[in-house]
Amino acid sequence: MTQTLRLGIAGLGTVGASVLGMVARRAEALTAATGRTITVTAVSARDRSRDRGVDLSGLHWFDDPVELARSGEIDVFVELVGGSEGAAKAAVEAALGAGKHVVTANKALLAHHGAALARLAEERGVALAYEASVAGGIPVIKAIREGLTGNTISRVYGILNGTCNYILSRMEAEGLTFEACLKDAQALGYAEADPTFDVEGFDTAHKLAILTSLAFGVEIDAEGVSVEGISAIQPLDLTMADELGYRIKLLGVAQATAEGIEQRVHPTMVPKASAIAQVMGVTNAVTVDADAVGELTLIGPGAGGAATASAVVADITDVALGLVRPTFGQPMAHLASPRRVEMQRHEGGYYIRLTVHDRTGVAAGVATRMAEANISIESIVQRRSAKAASSDPQGLSGQPVPLVLITYAATEGNVRKALAAIDRDGLLAEAPQLIRIERE
After folding, report:
1. Using one digit for the tens of pLDDT, what is the confidence trace for 92-116?
2. Distances (CA, A) of 180 to 200, 262, 331
3. Three-class SS string for 67-99?
4. How high is the pLDDT of residue 386?
5. How many CB atoms are closer than 10 A to CB 14?
6. CA–CA dist 191, 199 (Å, integer)
7. Is residue 207 annotated as a catalytic residue, yes or no?
8. What number of H helices and E strands is found in the chain?
9. What per-residue string of b and e applies to 248-259 under the rule 16 or more CB within 10 Å gives b?
10. For residue range 59-104, what is the model confidence (pLDDT) as tens digits?
11. What is the spatial distance between Cα 59 and Cα 78, in angstroms, rounded to a whole number?
C-alpha cells in the first residue's frame, strides 16, 4: 500500500491537539516505518475559535463528528471525544458502519459497548484500535494481546488512575488528609472539578474490564467489576500500612480462579518491596502474572497529551501497515462469557481498622467475633494517644480509639459477617475501615 492514509480527528482537546502535532512532526519517520504518507485531512470539535496551539489551516472542519465519521475524505476515524454514549458512540458506530478504521482512547465506550463495536468492526473487516484507552502511553494492550500470546495469564492488576495515585502518594509522604490532597490535585489539573469518576474507582473499573477481556479471552463485563474508591482513606491508615511494611494503592485486579474471574477495584495494601509499591505520583503501572514470563510490570505515564498521543499514533501506524487484529485478541465468536466471582467469595488478607470504645473487654469481644467467623488474626494493635494512656492507664474512659487487625487469608463474606456482629455488639464508635492486602 502506497496511497496516503487520511485521518479524521474528532475531539481537539489536549490529546487531539497532541496527535495533530505528533503526526506533523513525525511525518517522515511515519512514512519510513509504514511506506505510506499519513496526514490529517479533517477535524471536528465544539469550538472553532479556540486556540489549540496547532495549525488547523487546510483541514476540513466538521461541526458534527458523525458527519466526519462518514466522510469520504478520511480512511481512519480517530475518536477523542470521550464518554460512553452520545456523540462518541454514534460517531464510532457510523465510522465502522461506513467501513472505516477507528482509533480511540475512550475506555468508557469500550467498557460498555466494546463487544457490539468489535462485532461491527469484524463484519466490516476494519480495525478497532484502542491502545490509548488504558494506562496512557504504556503499551499494555499490545503487550497482552500480541507479546504474551504464548502465556497463560493468571492475574493482571495495576495502578490505572494517576489522580488517585497522586493523592495517596501525597497523603503518605506528607501526612495530609484526602480532602487536602484532592484540592491540590484539582489546582494542578490532575483532578476534575467533579472528581467522582476518578476517586471512586469508576475510571479504573472501565480500564480493568478491557484488560480482563484481553487477558482471559472473555467478553467485556464492566458490570461485573466490584468498585470501591479512596475517599474513606485516612492518614492513620497510611501510617499503619507503613509500619506493617505496606503501601496503599488503588488497584484494579482481575484474577482467574477455579470459580471464574474476579474483577475488583479497591484500595489495596501492597508490600513496600514490590515493584508496584514504588510507583508514586501520577504514574501508572500494570503487572501481569503469567506462566512463561512470570511477573511482568510495565510502568509509565498514564495520562497527558503527549503520552496518550503516543499510543494513538502507534495504533494509526498499525492501520497504515494493514494490521487488522481481532479487537480483543480473538474473534468475537471465540470469546467466552465471563463467569463472575462475587466479591463476597474473594479470599485474602485484610487490614481492618475499627474505631472502638476504649474500655476493658473490647479487644476480646472483637477477637471472639472474628473467631466465630473462622477468621484468624495475624496481629492486633490498639492505638491510644500518649495523653489518653497517661491519664487513663486502665483504659476505662470509653473514648473512641483505633483498633487495627491484620488477618490471615479469609473470605470477604466472613469478614463482613464478623464486622456486622461486632457492630451489633455496640463496640464500634464509627464505621470500620476495610482494606484488602495483595501479597505477592
Report:
1. 999 999 999 999 999 999 999 999 9
2. 16, 33, 47
3. HHHHCCCCCEEEECCCCCCHHHHHHHHHHHHCC
4. 45
5. 18
6. 9
7. yes
8. 15, 17
9. bbbbbbbbbeee
10. 999 999 999 999 999 999 999 999 999 999 999 999 999 999 999 9
11. 15
Three cell numbers, residue 260: 471464574
Judged by DSSP in three states, 355 sits in strand
DSSP states along 307-320: HHHHHHHHHHHHHH
Neighbours of 50 (CB within 10 A): 11
Q: Which H or E element spans position 250?
A: strand 246-256
Q: Which of 89, 100, 107, 207 is catalytic?
A: 207
Cell of 401: 480509639
Q: What is the pLDDT of residue 7?
A: 98
Q: Which of 51-65, 178-192, 368-382 has the lowest mean pLDDT?
A: 51-65
Dihedral of CA atoms 162, 167, 169, 171 in degrees, nearest 10, equals -170
Instruction: Find the helix or strand (DSSP H, E) in which 238 lies.
Output: helix 235-243
Angle at 217 between CA 165 and CA 345, to 5 degrees: 65
